[in-house]
User: What shape does this take?
Amino acid sequence: MRIRPHASGRGGQVSKVKTMRNVESSINPNERPHSCESRNPGKHWIPGQARNDKLYKTDCALYRVFEVQNLKASLTLLSLIGGCLLLTATDAYAMHVSEGLLPFHWAALWSALALPFVAWGLFKLKKLSTLDISFKPLVGLMAAVVFIISCMPIPVPTAGSCSHPCGTAISGILVGPAISILVAAVALLIQALFLAHGGLSTWGANIISMGVMGSFAGFLTFKALRSMKINLAVSGFVAGLLADWATYFTTSIELASGIKGDSPFMPLFWKILIAFIPTQLPLGILEGAMTAGMIVLLYKKRPDLLVRMKVLKAEEAV
Assistant: This one.
């Protein structure tokens, strides 16, 4: 019997499913990505759980279509927010380390240190994408999250920069520090080019502070606390808090080393660090709460994603 596709209703859905089954017919059952949901209502597939291969292939096809739609939606949201920020732009403050603030030799040094980390992120992205084609849409969503969170500046005039949440703790925990650094680099580049936040000459310095230090601080703190059997909420909170503070500790080092001239380093470093405290102390607590909230929400709604991204072990998600 021939099934005619309709604009809406069961017929169009069945036709689409049949097409996806044909596309997925070549999948090797032994190379199953850990991203497809079970047909059992309210449950998710966990690695090692038995399932029907035919339904599995259908689930994979539909899930991948859903992931691509998610990526398109996140890019659209990112474009809309960027457009709104451009249309409502006022006098710009020096968010991140601003353009021209660092001498050339310091800007070149930080850029030279940052480029290997960006290359590492690109290598990891290519490697992981070949193993799971739905990984790139997830990275796109993380890039949108980091971009939006880090676009909330609170000026700190005495420090020559701004305080703001970073979002690299959550990306470091979910996709790992290498991909998180790449995500931060892309977000910082877009902000420098279109929003006058940061700058091209200071791009490397901002990658080191927000991308490298923020991602590693969040990732390592979370892993250390989880190894001590600390629950997800507390681990996520502390990881977000320390990732935020590590970012601004590093920013203080970059600013003090770049603008000190012939003056001693330590007095200027302490002045800049103390200038950040009134705004960054509460923002660090806020970022810790956001990180914990996102991890707990994923645990309740999509524990299979946390298993797939190696945030949880399979037995912990049951």
Notes: The first helix runs from residue 10 to 23. The longest strand covers residues 154-156.
